Amino acid sequence: MEMPLSKAMQQMPATPDEAMIAEAYIYLLGRALVLRQEHTDCKEKGFAYNKIKYNPLGSADFVNPNFDVAYLEAWFAVDDKTPVILEVPKIEGRYYTAQILDEWGEVVANINERTFPTRPFGRFLLAKPGSRVKTPRGAGRIELHSAKAKMLARVEIKGDPAGAIKLQRAFKVKVTGKPSVRKPNTIPMFDNKDLIGVELFELSEEIMTNALDVAPNAASMQEKVRAVAMHVASGEQARTQVDNHLREKVIPDYKVYAITKVGPLRNGWLAPATAGNYGSNYRARTMVNLLGIWGNSTDEVLYFGASHGPDGKPLDGGRGYVMRFPAGALPEMVVNAYWSVIVVSVPDYRVIPNPLKRYNFNNHSPLKKEADGSLKIGIGPKPPPGVPESNWLPSAPGKPFALTFRTYVPKEIVRTEWAPPALTALN
């Protein structure tokens, strides 16, 4: 017997308009970007679900990497009868967090002394939602959003690499049994330059139903996706029209939006309004998954991005730029943990190779201050005039770049008004 369409579907136009196609695509692209990362991770040597990967210090093969911390990461897979036990070591005197995210890029939890003040370390049971597995005595319990989750944990190096590595290796995972692991949905692999097109709608039902989206507008957005998918499936002409509209209009416009309009500009730096937990803002979620996947929640870190200079033109690797922090407004004054700034390539947002292997600065970098206590940081193919060589981040001539400025455990002023200083472009 034919099932009746939902009331929402009955109210939708038979042919989705261009606005609906754009909304549905941008929403679904956020999920596809997480899937792309899962496939990428699965291909790495030695990968297994429920197995921690302890990344070497200074590892650069990452989107928008963070060289301030010892990273460790894992994909967790659980089922109704088989949870995972995560053991977090006791860490004092340096920043750390065990960030757990769902299959849409939403933060499930951060395990640290700020968000878990009564249990900042120890054993945590990670369970499939709705499962009745018992929590071991003395362990915490975290309900995941689906049968899979990603962990990205960080331990601040803080000038002590050996100590950071020791703590990194103290994170452990234990599984009692063999959980049923769902393979990631098959999707055509794509890069940031050439994003996936109409094929995304042909895979939409599996992509959506295999992973719960906790966004409050998920149901309405998924109805729109289904309406567009039905239209795409109606014939070759409809499929071609949708694909052309995506590639000629939707994707180019969204790329501009993602790097220039997703949040307010402060001193020329884009300050996304939200990250980690997005509410109904699927546009911001997709932006974070595109430009720097696994973004954390705003109480942990606030990100600032710069991709254009003061003249409004894209940052040019052949030019020199300077940012100057006044003595009374140094970046360490606005954070309770640490700050960092990194140069990344566009459009793939990875480090730019250079002979110095110098990609970022942070609290513990040996930066030289000016006589008046101010701080200059220079970016360019060679040290900008008036900037000490120790304060220079190399760029590559002929290649555009972007800057990401991180403020970990930011003070309230960062949420309301502070931003890194405006870039000055040199002739």
Short description:
With 427 residues, this protein is of the alpha+beta class.
* End-to-end Cα distance: 72 Å
Secondary structure tally, helices: 9
Percent of residues in helices: 10-25%
What is the string of helix and strand elements? HHEEEEEEEEHEHHHHEEHEEEEEEEHE
Class by helix and strand content?
Answer: alpha+beta
**What is Rg?**
23 Å
Largest sheet: 5 strands, antiparallel
3D shape: globular
Low-confidence stretches: none
How are the strands of the biggest sheet laid out side by side?
1-2-8-4-5
What is the averaged pLDDT score? 92
| Proportion of residues in β-strands | 15-25%
Total strand count, please?
Answer: 19
Descriptive report:
This protein is of the alpha+beta class. Helix content is 24%, strand content 22%. The strands form five sheets. A five-stranded antiparallel sheet has the order 1-2-8-4-5, covered by helices on one side. It has a four-stranded mixed sheet with strand order 7-6-3-9, with no helix packed on it. A four-stranded antiparallel sheet has the order 12-18-14-15, with no helix packed on it. Helix 2 crosses helix 6, helix 2 packs across helix 7 (236-260) and helix 2 (18-42) runs parallel beside helix 8 (282-291). The longest helix is centred in the N-terminal third of the chain and has 25 residues, at 18-42.
Keywords for this entry:
globular; 19 strands; alpha+beta; 5-stranded antiparallel beta sheet; 427 residues; 9 helices
Write the SSE topology.
Blueprint: H1 7-11, H2 18-42, E1 53-54, E2 69-77, E3 84-88, E4 96-101, E5 107-111, E6 122-127, E7 140-143, E8 148-156, H3 161-168, E9 172-175, H4 199-202, H5 204-209, H6 218-232, H7 236-260, E10 265-266, E11 269-270, H8 282-291, E12 301-306, E13 321-325, E14 339-345, E15 360-362, E16 375-380, E17 392-394, E18 401-408, H9 412-416, E19 424-425
Parallel strand pairs: 6-7, 16-17
Antiparallel strand pairs: 1-2, 2-8, 3-6, 3-9, 4-5, 4-8, 10-11, 12-18, 13-16, 13-19, 14-15, 14-18
